[in-house]
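Still learning. Any example?
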Amino acid sequence: MQYSESYGKYKNSRNAAWQTLIDFQIKELPLKLTDIAKKANITIKKNSEINILKPQTLAISFLLNNKWVIVYDDSFDNIAMIRFSIAHEMGHIFLGHELKGGYHQRTFNVDKPQVETEADIFASRLLAPACVLWGLNLHTPEEIMKACDISISAAKIRAERMEVLYKRNKFLTSPLEQKVYNNFKDFIDSNNV
C-alpha cells in the first residue's frame, strides 16, 4: 500500500472518530461508550449472558433485526481492554466496514487485515483524542491512561504518537478537530486550574 493510500485510510478513521465525538456531543474524558451506544441504538452485551464468542475473540459486532449488537468478552478483569474492544467494534460500525461471515470480530491476532487497523485507529482516537490530550497537556502514558481509562499499552502507543504531534504543533488545523476541541473546552479549562 502506498503512503498516500495508507494516510487516506488513517485520516478516514481519525475523522470518523472525531465526527462521532461531535455527533454524540462527547464533552469529557473518560468518555462513556454506553452513552454513544444508546444514542446510536447499539446494544452492548456481555458474552457471559449469551456465550457466543469463539476462543481468543475479544469482541464481535453484528446486525440483528437491523440493529447493531456488540458482544464483548467479560471474562477479563481489564476494563480498559474491554473499553478498547467495544470502541474498536464501534469503529467497524461507524466506518461502514463490510461484515465477513455476518460479523466483525476483534481477536488477539498479530497479523491484522487493514479494516482491523482502521478500527484500532478509530478506537484510539475516540477514546483519546489528540486535541484534548494536547489541551490537557498530557504527555506520559500514565497520564493518558488515567485520563482516558485505557490500558497502559494503548496509552504508550498514544503517548508515542502525541510526542510526534507535539513536535509538529499543528493542532486545531482541521475544522473537525476544532469542533471536537470546542466540545471539550469546558472540561479542558476545568482540568487546567
User: Anything to note?
Assistant: The chain has a mean pLDDT of 90. The chain has nine helices and four strands. Strands lie at 43-46, 57-64, 67-72, 103-107. Residues 31 and 127 are 7 Å apart (CA to CA).
